[in-house]
User: Fold these one by one.
Assistant:
Number 1:
Amino acid sequence: MNPSMKYALLLFCFAASIRPLTAQDSIVQNVTARRELNLDGRWNYMVDPYETGYYDYRHQPYDQSPSGKGGYYDDRKQTDKSQLIEYDFDRSPTLKVPGDWNSQDEKLLYYEGTIWYRRVFQTTPQPGRRYFIYFGAVNYEAHVYLNGKKLGMHKGGFTPFQFEVTSLLKAGDNTLVVKADNTRHQDEIPTVNTDWWNYGGITRDVCLASTPETFISDYQLQLKKDDPHTIEGYVQLAGQHSPQTVTIDIPEAGIHTTTTTDGGGRAPVAIMTKKLAYWSPEHPKLYAVSLSTATDTTVDRIGFRTIRVQGKDILLNGKPVFLRGICIHDENPLIPGRLRGEGDCRMLLTWAKQLGCNYVRLAHYPHNEAMIRLADEMGLMVWAEVPVYWTISWTNPDTYANAQKQLSDLINRDRNRAAVIIWSIGNETPLSAPRLDFMSRLAAHAHQLDNTRLVSAALEVHRQGNEVIVDDPLGEKLDLVSFNEYAGWYWGDKLADLPNYHFTIKYDRPVIITELGGDALAGFHADPDTRWSEEYQEALYANQVKMLSGITALRGITPWILVDFRSPRRQHPVYQNFWNRKGLISEQGVKKRAFYTLKNFYDTIAKKYPE
Ligand code: GCB
């Protein structure tokens, strides 16, 4: 855009007092407790590969033109038979929300581009209440309009966002339109190249939330770093910022206390207690917590535990643990598509429990909040990650800002979940100076936002003969040494050679192997030397276990992966057919032989590390 056009646009925005075109920075903590109206269900949609509903024929966005007219977000209806309108939401097909579009219509399986969604809902806004439209996630770029007015834009396919709509909401019918675009771009997070399906659309819940004018917008209540007897954190109010009393009740722990907000609406929390039953996988105790002010009350269920590193050990509530884990993608293989609700999440976490897990790595991006809450309830520790994956544009400041925003949104959403013990800032990022700078800043950011959890990343290894070397300068900034290794699969070795490898690890910290594994087509049986057979995968796991027992600091593993998952990179017509087959469970939910090999290993480990 030339400078004079930019100036004209600025003037126009100012004159029309258009809000900033991005989603609000902070989202309402525990939004389901504020839900006024569930907006899940069937939404009308239009596929728009040329973005005809967004740009005019000179390729100028309609929503920035002075008349603001012409885009699909107007949801216009023909009122006269001579009138020309080239779209009609009412007579367009529907998609289920939440749900990716790829799994709902065969024509959309490979689609990458724009789809418009529309939902009409009825409400009666009450005076003295504030209203927010909340999205659990839209992949990847979402432009959102209510009653023809643009609320804003959000980028990032896996994090929640919201817009305040108090002044736009009408009594009666309201029209919500979303332009969702899942086009991949080099400078985005993730970048163009991933090993998972680029599921597009409104993939997580949508709701209208309502609050009083001054309300509890955010809070953190977690055990203080290294102190099992102090619940520490804050309560943040939005609205009026005159000092107010906040009451915190945790009846089951005999806690009833108050704190006062400062000029910024923030009240510090520090509660001494000796009465807590600590959260652990064996006893995933969650307390009913209620927070209230003169005008507002909100409730949550929160668990309390400490997690820290001491030498080569990971201590949960002061006791050494071994993380018996598995990696999981946000995909229901039976649909196949993104997980659509708590039932889907429960199916995957139940499989993880059957495997003997006390821990899951939710790869490679923030999973649904429902998944984390379920892990809290079912007793599974969680590694939570942002999609800083492979070859990010390390030198682009906007790319960094985007990664940092996604990390902040993840931490802010899940900071009260005892299950989450590790924030991961990325996966398999290749060594270089700009990458080290980018990743170091992310690590510092995670530590600064939350000093009660561990920060890590899945690093890469290098090999010299039989020596496997972990020597990545990013390791200095991380609390754990975590790396992926594919001995027996990408390293192309004879499986029996695996136990001859030895690991040279530069850092004196607990070691977690974040990935290992190999593909097997469920039901394909052969001898253990035959690639793709269940027997090969089984032998690979057996030899991996022998090999890894040589690492004295080993304190956890998350093999790749619980279930086969769809990936455009996996093209072998017989064995893959667009599926990554490293799952221990097939896309039909059938357990492969290696599932039991790993389960046996975990059963032995569980005896060594009683919880
Ligand atoms: C990896 C990646 C993971 C892939 C996996 C594989 O190292 O982290 O996203 O899916 O390998 O199967 O190659």
Number 2:
Amino acid sequence: MKIFIDSADVDAIKEAADTGLVDGVTTNPTYIAKSGKNFKKVVEEICKIVPGPVSAEAMAETADGMIKEAVEIASIAPNVVVKIPMNIEGLKAVPVLEKQKNVKTNVTMIFSSTQAFLAMKAGASLVSIVLSRLDAIANESIVLVEDAVTIKQNYGYRSEVLAASMKTQNHVLECLRAGVDIVTIPTQLFFQMYRHTLTDTGLEAFRKDWEKVSGGGKPQS
Ligand code: E4P
């Protein structure tokens, strides 16, 4: 399963990318606004840090407007993927962008299994299912996760299923069990996954015991 970072914070993305385990980045207008930087500049900076796909969102409301905007956004860097809204105009724009304009698309704000199906049928490279916002209204995101993977497998759609709005390690586990292609996660959750109390206490005990037998010498740093 690929790991993307869900953020437009350049320093945080760099720190995560330095681990070697990050495959891409997703942004949205809220993250860009939080960065306090110009949209084009921040997308350019992120694309230089991460060679994998970097999603940046088109905000036009008509299919023609989205196509024009998406082509401009895609010209920022070769690894840009354009986020397109899950609606009728968005799904009209997707096949034109994918087949005629050579622009990869990521259909975003998918909250139902039938929306996921339509986005796959339209030919999106990525379909973004949104987990925690569903959980917040007592709809179990696990159903959407499992359905999206099943729909893709049953019909051989080429879209990658991307799980977004991830807040907990349990969300990551749900995705791993279901066979999701990509999770996009905040850096805090990414670094949390490295940690376990038993790992910390176990390694600390080994370090102390090592000091006892290594003549006071410290292990090489
Ligand atoms: C995905 O498409 C969204 O941009 C993002 O993952 C939303 O995350 P949030 O629900 O934490 O705002």
